[in-house]
Amino acid sequence: MQLHPPAPVEKIISTLSHAGFKTFFVGGAIRDLLLGKSPADYDIVTNCPLSTLQTLFRKERSKIAGKTFPVLLINDVEVAPPRSQDHGHPFPETDLGARDFTINSMAMDPSSGRIIDPFNGKKDLENRVIRFTRNPAQRIEEDPLRMVRACRFKAAIGGCFSGETLQAIKKNAALITTESAPERLRLEIMKAMSIPRPSSFFWGLREADLLQYLLPCLDRCVALDGGPHHGETVFEHCLMVGDALSLQYPLLRLAGFLHDAGKFDAACMENNLLTFKGHETMKKAILSDLENLRFSTRERAFVDAMVSVHMRPLTEESSPKAVRRLLAFLAEHQVSHQNFMRMRIADKSANRAKKPYILSEIKSRLKKIYDAQTAHQHRKFTKNSLAINGNDIMALLDCAPGREIGSILDHLFERVLDDPSLNTVDKLKGLVLDFI
Question: Going by CATH, does the domain composed of 128-214 fall within 1.10.3090.10?
């Protein structure tokens, strides 16, 4: 087997070899090659000390990254100096023994293609087993984030934990709240959104007792009954929705995994039936979890908006007026009709008590949206789209700014939603005079 890295990677290897240092590909590139995938990146390990690395590549764009095991990023390629000094073992075995999982503790000689696998990572990869390299407790102590990474790799290869790996993670699960940077936890979650079925990641977090610390808003929904309109628990439904959304839209996917987490706070009994009225407004726990994980203001606002709008109806019977109101609501929350429809389609497909949309049903709903948009020249219709504004109203009524102006604008907006033909200067001014 042989890797064929891009030119910038070849240049780094050549420079180190000419300087008399050993170099090996390590980690993900080997794992991807054995899985029959094209490597996403090419990490390099060398016996060159970090200070010498900096000198050799001083003319290149480079920076040091990492605390526990510093590496030098050279033109975005990760080059790692030796992680440990074990004179009883040759390089790179000394380095591989300090890496996180056996499937990542393999190296390849760039010139011969020979794979160095001292911890049976190839066998674990074939058996789809996630196993810490050497001592699990020590690997976790070095970097508790590895517990979350274990769940991501487990999901990525469709595998399972080894017994001692799972035991070690469950014993140390609480460390991710005290010893792992929230920004790094956020990054692991977003990386998981690129897995074909991220639900495996969340199931892994749950199995390892990590979900309660990472996303408690979702963890509390595990045993929550979905109610009379669902054939699955709320947790199962959320995971099915996230899986049904495309990996092209990672933040939308995350919103899908969290969209019904507010049901825990909304749950109540009415006429001996479990109901979740208004659950789309119960977002405090969701947004708090995202803030704790250092999701940006923009990211939190997007998830907030998708949760807010996901229950808005759009049916075969929706009138043009109802569709215009829907589009106005989406515009108010800065949600595109495309994302709204993506979420609606995924939500419907993730309900075991109902049938998913068929293509004709999707097309008819999109046509209703198109027809409503056509009435406003394909623009989002908001209060700012009215033919007159607050200043026009104050001039017409010869009055000062106040709440009354806002009330009048609300009234005009509602009337135009009912009848778009009213959106002219003269007609709106007439409506203002009638309103007062």
Answer: yes
